[in-house]
Each structure stands twice: as C-alpha cells, then as structure tokens.
Write a sequence for this structure.
C-alpha cells in the first residue's frame, strides 16, 4: 500500500502551518484529516480544499480520550498512513508568572498532544507495519529564550520522544518511519512577522511526510535540508577512511 | 478467555510454540484434538520485521521482540563466557528468526551404512521410516528447491525455486566447472509477490514458513487450539509414571493447567531445563531423569564460514541464498556436513572485520597501530573482486555426555551450558576446512571464521531418543521412558546432530510424534 492511498492526519490544522500542511497534502491528492481544537478553524481549513478532500476533526490533542475517539472514527473512513504532529502553543510567559498548572498545561498540549496522537495512530500503523510520522520541532530546547520555559521544555521533550519512538519501533517496524522537522521561522501567529510564508514551509513538510523511505527513520530536517548528527574530527576521519561519509539529504518538493 | 483455558482439561498441552511445538500442535488439532499452546514469550505483532539482536541487552526489550530474555552462561573448554544466544522466545520460537533452510539429512545421519558407521549405532527410527514424514513436512512447509545430484535416495518432488540471480548462476557454473555438485538449496519460503526474503528476521506474512506460519497459526485456524502466550511453565507435576498438570506463571499470577498428554517443545536448551526444574518427591533427579541423561549429549554444529567470489565480470545483482552442495558431506571416511550459501554478500566491512580477526591472532597483535593497515587489502579486494557471497560449512558435532545443559534455580532466565571441544572434533574440523579449500580450487575463497565457532542456533540432543532407558531419555516414539503421557517434539530428541540444518527434521519428527499420540488415543490407551 502507498502512503498516499491512506489518510494524513495533521494536528493544529485550524490555522497557521497546520492549515498550510493540510492544504498542501490535499493538493497532492491525499485525503487529509484536519484536526484542531475549535470547529471554526478546521471547518475553514476544510472549506479551502476541494470538496470532501479535507475532513475537519474537532479534538483537543491534550485530551487522550478525545484523540482516541477521533482516530477510531477516522479508521472507519480509511487507514491513517501519515501523521504530522504540528499542534503546539507558545505562551510567552516569564517563569515567575507560570504556575505548576499553567506549565503542565503547555506540556500537555505540546508533548502530550504528540504522545496522544502518535499512540492512537500507531494502532493502525502497527497492524500493517507501515506509516509515516513527522514531528514538527524547533531548536528551542538548545538555548531556551527568556519567557519560553514551558515551550522550550515541551518541544525539547518532543525531540526526545521521537528518538524514544525510534528506539522502540525501528527494528520491529522499519516501515513506520519517524522524522523531526524544523520548519524555520514562519510568518504565523506563533512565529514572527518577517518570517517565511507558511505555504512555502508546508511544501517541504508535506513532501517530507510523503517521502517514503525507511532510511529516514530518526532523521532530522531543518526547512528542506537534513541535519546530520554531530560528529567529531576523529569520527569524520574514520568515516572517510571507511568510505561511509554521510551527506545531508534534501527534500525535493 | 483465560479462565476458560484454566478450567479446561485439554487433550494435549504443548509447551513451547516453536518449530516442533507449532507443527505437532497443528497436526494434533487437525486430527481433532483439543490443543493448548503454552508459550513463554509474546505473540507479537504480525507486521513485525526484527531479526535477532545480540547487542540488545535489556531483558524487557528482548522479551517484547521475541528473543530469549536471559543470557547464555557458557563454560566452553572450562572458560566462562556470557552472551545472548540466537534463541527465540515467542510464538514461532527461534524459527521466526531462521533462514528457512530445510534440508533432509543423509541416510548415514540416521543409521549405519556400509563404510559409514553411526556414532550412536543408529537412531531407533531408521531413514526409511522417516522418509514419509520428511515428505509430509516438506509439503506442510512449502519447501522449494532441487534434488541433490549426489543423493542415491529417490527424490520427492519439491516446489520450484525462483529463478537464479546472475551471481548465483555464475557461481553455480563455476562450482560445476570445479567438479562440484551444487544444487538449489531447499528453502521454506513461498516467494509470494513482494517477498523480501526474510532470512534471519520475522516475516510479516505467511510467506516464510516457520513454527508460527506453518504451525501455530493453522492450528488456531482449526478452532480446536488455543494459545497462552507470555506464560512461563515453572514445573511439570505428577506421579512416577504420569504427568498430571503443569504449574505456570503469567502476569504475576501462578496457576495450574491440566491435560491428558503433554508435549515438551521448549527447544534443546529449554526442554531439559524444565525437566530438571521439575525435581520433586516423585522425580528426585528431575522429571524423566532416572537415567541422569537429561541435558546431556548437547550438540551444536561447527560453522566454517567463508567468502566465495563469483568469477570476474559477474553482474552484482545482490546476494542469493540459493546454493547448497554436499560434495564434502562425508569425505574420505569422515563425517563433515553440508555447505550452503547464507544469503549474505561480503563487502569491504566484512573483509576488514575478518582481517582484523586474523591480525588479533597473529604475532603482530600487540602493535595496535598496524591493525588499521588491514583496510588496504580489504579495500583492494572490494574494489577488484566486487562483493563475495558468504557460505557456511555446517559440520556435524557428536554427542558427549559431559557436554550438557544444566539448571540453576537462582537464575531461571539464564541458560547454562557446559561444553568441551573434543580433540576428535577439532581434528575433524581441520580436515573439513582442508577439504573445502581443496574442493574450491580455482575459486577465490577466503575463510571468515578462524577459531572453532559453535552454531548456537542449532542445539540438539539433550533428551536423547534411544531404546535403552539407562542411556537415553526418550523411547523410539519420543515418549519419556517410564512416563507414558509425556512426549518431546523439539530438537532435544536427536541422537546425533546430522550434517544439515535441524529444522526439517524437527518438523518431520513432530508429525511422527503427533501420529503416535493420535494412534494410541484411538487404541484407547
């Protein structure tokens, strides 16, 4: 079965990058489930696509039960072959203004949402041994900015989650391929005004989500280019000698 | 479900759902018996693709993947070592990870033949009485391949193998040119559309035939069999001549399961351990161990692995696991074994690894900096010769009672073995290597193993079948001497290790043992 024959679930698809991803995938002929917290947002996204191509699904990714129910319902429409974990919030908040509860709420959406949707999607993917999961990521964990603690922690944890998934699944289900993708600074509500057009970023994201190659398992991409794991001088020399130097892969849109 | 299973008096409980257990359970269920498989490992996901991974050390992760969770604790020639063996624990057992080479043994493997005396005097079951069971097992397991041109035995028809790759065609030709007799290896792969040749890894479809796809799954499909996975058998219980029930642990609970007949199929390393663990008032030395022979006569094969380059100019269209030859099987009065392609291509990395091994045993071994220089000849070889095909010569091991599996109640997950490389074995091995080398003259070939390498994936012999209860554990029908309702259907029964892969013999014997159970049941015994 081809990835394109199934359904792609895009979370946080009521606006911004999520909407752009949903539209781009739909334009490539894929059936898309646009998942979002508010009915208004995802219905608007669905209305922007060709009739029936984008299915609006209302669910709060932080709510495990709601996510399970949403995926159970989707399974009746067809197999979920692609999942883009895009939903996230970025509250700009000094840590002194956070409470334990407010911090946990951000973690529940940014990390918990990824966990809930991935867990639900894997039911079907493990059945057939095929699937593609792209986790939208950032470098926010490497050097956290001020007033970004909950975002930096939860998105950083999301990257660890990708690696943990690979550790659990890659050898058993090489056909379920998990990658991290950093879209870059975008001109969205969550991003910056002078940032990149989300439609441009979505072209890369959608192409990456449909790039069906087991060798992409655990790979990390920034915009359209792979980021190779860091390698010291000694390691680089060794790689050259052993004729196994790696080159960064580039997403072809 | 579980309480139903617990309250049933089963016709047969099969302990261990690997090649032997799967096949016997299938046949018994097909013959109308109510069968329960009790399997230590998990059922797993059908779409799983993993191979065995000796680097994976975490017992939880190992168990999930269907690997035996604990280490093998081996004393080999008195030296202790610990490692993860190529042993499965899950539905299909080790067979889901095998390379599906199912070859029949030779007549002299089972009985004495003129000029070829048998090391045990012969199995209680002769070659001719096994033939029909082999044919039936080949049928059940969809074995494809071609007859060995050297065999004097009538050949039963096998399924047609897929076309040869260019590399294999060239090798076949050049081996014939050297006066050898290669033939298409016998393989339990159906080559369904999109087949990915799951050699050494779990097959996601019923394409590779193993204890799961040809055993447990068809058994469950009859509606008369049930499976209790993730269920550890702690001990067999009963009176001197009868097993009444087994004690099992599952999900933190301990309970008993009952049946009229019990079939032990936990593998040649697992089954004797369970019998030893079942020591009780009725069986002070362990169940079925009045002879003290339980766990003894442990045999493996010795692997002689070599790289064989196809003639220059051969297209490099990937590895094939297509060729077997028996030219060295029994040679100048010596018991050797079969030679077969492993389905691996050796490139630069494998050659570096092998050369480093040679370096580490050489006089230069303390000059570590020089070790890097092995890369140069390896790179040259890879550049000039292309990729080699890796072959293995399997050499028969003989049973010695001091080679054995033991049981340590303090470490129930560990598999303890004590094994001495007999001088006779080492001498035979040198002769086997010389024979291979001489036979392959005119070919570019290169041994990748140097020290004797035991094939821990081929254990057998630990519950020897024999007519004398003083020197064997099982009778000719693989029933425990003195315990009428305890049968064995794994590789433990083999009196000798033969010169071929054990799986087909395990399956054929399992069918034979099943028939014995059915026959006695119908006779009202």
């Amino acid at each position: 079965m081809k990835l394109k024959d199934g359904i792609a679930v895009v979370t946080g698809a009521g606006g911004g990058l999520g909407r752009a991803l949903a539209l781009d995938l739909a334009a490539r002929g894929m059936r898309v489930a646009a998942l979002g917290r508010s009915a208004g947002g995802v219905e608007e996204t669905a209305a922007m696509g060709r009739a029936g191509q984008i299915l609006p699904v209302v669910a709060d990714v932080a709510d495990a039960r709601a996510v399970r129910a949403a995926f159970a319902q989707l399974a009746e429409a067809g197999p979920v072959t692609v999942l883009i974990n895009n939903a996230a919030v970025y509250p700009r908040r000094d840590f002194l203004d956070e409470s334990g509860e407010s911090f946990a709420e951000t973690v529940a959406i940014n990390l918990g949402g990824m966990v809930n949707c991935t867990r639900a999607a894997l039911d079907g993917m493990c059945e057939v041994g095929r699937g593609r999961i792209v986790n939208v990521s950032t470098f926010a964990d490497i050097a956290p900015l001020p007033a970004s603690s909950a975002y930096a922690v939860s998105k950083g944890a999301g990257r660890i989650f990708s690696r943990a998934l690979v550790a659990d699944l890659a050898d058993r289900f090489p056909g379920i391929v998990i990658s991290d993708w950093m879209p870059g600074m975008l001109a969205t509500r969550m991003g910056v005004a002078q940032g990149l057009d989300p439609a441009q970023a979505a072209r890369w994201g959608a192409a990456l989500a449909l790039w069906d190659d087991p060798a992409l398992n655990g790979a990390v991409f920034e915009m359209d280019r792979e980021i190779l794991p860091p390698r010291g001088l000694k390691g680089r020399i060794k790689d050259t000698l052993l004729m196994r130097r790696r080159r960064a892969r580039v997403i072809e849109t | 479900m579980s309480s139903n299973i617990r309250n049933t008096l089963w016709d047969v409980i099969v302990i261990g759902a690997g090649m032997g257990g799967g096949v016997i359970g299938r046949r018994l269920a097909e013959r109308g018996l109510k069968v329960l498989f009790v399997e230590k490992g998990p059922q797993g996901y059908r779409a799983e693709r993993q191979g065995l991974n000796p680097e994976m050390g975490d017992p939880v992760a190992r168990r999930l993947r269907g690997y035996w969770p604990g280490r093998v604790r081996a004393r080999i020639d008195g030296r202790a070592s610990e490692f993860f063996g190529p042993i499965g624990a899950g539905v299909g057992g080790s067979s889901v990870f095998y390379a599906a080479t199912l070859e029949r043994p030779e007549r002299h493997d089972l009985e004495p033949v003129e000029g070829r005396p048998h090391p045990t005097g012969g199995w209680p079951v002769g070659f001719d009485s096994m033939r029909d069971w082999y044919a039936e097992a080949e049928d059940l397991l969809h074995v494809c391949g071609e007859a060995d041109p050297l065999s004097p035995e009538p050949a039963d028809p096998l399924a047609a193998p897929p076309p040869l790759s260019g590399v294999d065609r060239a090798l076949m030709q050049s081996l014939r040119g050297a006066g050898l007799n290669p033939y298409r290896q016998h393989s339990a792969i159906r080559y369904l559309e999109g087949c990915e040749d799951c050699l050494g890894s779990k097959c996601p479809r019923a394409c590779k035939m193993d204890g799961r796809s040809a055993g447990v799954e068809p058994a469950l499909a009859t509606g008369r069999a049930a499976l209790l996975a993730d269920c550890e058998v702690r001990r067999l219980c009963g009176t001197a001549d009868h097993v009444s029930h087994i004690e099992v642990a599952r999900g933190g609970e301990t309970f008993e399961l009952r049946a009229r007949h019990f079939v032990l199929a936990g593998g040649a390393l697992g089954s004797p351990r369970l019998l030893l663990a079942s020591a009780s008032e009725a069986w002070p030395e362990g169940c079925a161990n009045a002879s003290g022979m339980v766990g003894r006569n442990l045999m493996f094969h010795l692997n002689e692995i070599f790289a064989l380059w196809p003639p220059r100019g051969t297209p490099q269209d990937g590895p094939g696991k297509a060729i077997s030859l028996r030219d060295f099987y029994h040679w100048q009065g010596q018991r050797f074994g079969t030679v077969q392609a492993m389905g691996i291509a050796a490139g630069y990395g494998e050659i570096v690894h092998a050369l480093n091994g040679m370096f580490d045993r050489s006089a230069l071994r303390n000059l570590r900096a020089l070790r890097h220089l092995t890369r140069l000849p390896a790179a040259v070889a890879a550049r000039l010769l292309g990729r080699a095909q890796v072959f293995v010569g399997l050499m028969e091991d003989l049973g010695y009672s001091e080679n054995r599996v033991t049981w340590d109640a303090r470490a129930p997950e560990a598999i303890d073995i004590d094994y001495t490389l007999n001088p006779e074995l080492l001498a035979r091995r040198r002769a086997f290597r010389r024979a291979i080398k001489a036979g392959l003259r005119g070919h570019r070939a290169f041994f990748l193993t140097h020290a004797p390498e035991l094939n821990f994936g081929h254990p057998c012999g630990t519950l020897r079948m024999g007519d004398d209860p003083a020197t064997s554990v099982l009778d000719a029908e693989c029933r425990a001497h003195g315990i009428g309702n305890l049968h064995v259907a794994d590789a433990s029964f083999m009196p000798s290790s033969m010169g071929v892969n054990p799986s087909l013999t395990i399956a054929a014997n399992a069918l034979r043992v099943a028939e014995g159970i059915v026959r006695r049941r119908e006779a009202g015994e």
Summary: Chain B touches chain A at residues 45-51, 53, 65, 204, 348-349, 352, 372, 375, 379 (CB under 8 Å). Chain B has a mean pLDDT of 93. Chain B has one domain: 2-347+386-522. DSSP finds twelve helices and 20 strands in chain B.
